[in-house]
Give the backbone structure.
Amino acid sequence: MHMRSVAFRLFLGFSALWSTVGAHGSEAKQILSLLDTQKSVRGLNALICGVWRDGKPIVEVALGNSMVNVPATRQMNYRVGGVTYTCVATLLLMFADQGRLSLSDPVSKWFPDLPDAEKVTLAMLANCTSGYADYVLYKPFVDDYVRDPFQQFSSADLLRYAFATPKHYEPGKGWNYSHTNFVILGDILAKVGKQPLRLLLDQYIFKPLKLRNTYVPTNSLIREPALHAYTHDRGVYEDSTAWNPSWTREAGMLVSNVRDLGVLAQALGTGRFLSRMSFETQIAPTSVGLGGNRASMYYGYGVILLNGWFAQNPNLCGYSTMFGYLPSKKIAITITTTKGPKSDPDGGADSPPIFREIAKLLAPGNPIPDSLK
């Protein structure tokens, strides 16, 4: 099951090594060797990876270059896309814990004019069972974005694309990954919280965790030092660092770095901000049996559950990331890669298969399904 459509990949030697290696010497050496091999085999420009157990680093490493003659470093910031959705879903559940909304509230409470607004609930938006089509699969949107990847999209723009095609099924009766759900959910949370979503995420999640390099930007720029990204998506290899991520709106525009992501993975993967009931709701297998979801790999509330791993696998604007936490072993892993000029244009996202190999090494009893792309 593809959690990011292959139909629209826009998004969705140690000589160049900058690293911190923890006390786990043997494991660290195996991971570093694996990463070095994967970077070479896949023709990557850069590979940044962090692995922690119980909050202590096994490896924090940056391999390769951000730009020609500019080495990648662990301090560099980059886009992490769908990790924002996990934060948005967590904020939704936090507001439910506070009694500011109910997961059963219909969309019509805030946006009565949207299709099926009386039938679609906040819970359906968060676990992608609303039936709303994903605008990133709509050819007119793809054509418009490819023509000008620097353009600014509003929520209204994106919803016009989304509702130009029929719903896939009656609300709650199926499952399809859809960015449309999170555009709407992000706008609703901003109304409930009476602040822009980016400020709410900062107030309720990033500041309490003291994440100094994690933020939702207000434009297409990434704070320096920025990891540069590259893509073949428009038929030529080009720098996509400044492509405008507004097609995800604030609900998908997150920027972070490797160390912050490790802290965030552990916090979200343990339900730190939620009541026990709300965290169990977030990871419950309610989508199993719908749209290809199964017990070994299913979608929760803004998160993918993979044989015990709490995970996300965003792929956008030339950045491929895999982010996960395994509560049973207290292991956090985050990987971000960028394509090189000789990488396979049709090779798909590089971080998930690399993550799979590290997970196999550290937690063989909790394998990442081969079908995750």
In short: The domain at 14-362 is CATH 3.40.710.10 (Beta-lactamase). Confidence is low (pLDDT under 50) at residues 1-18.
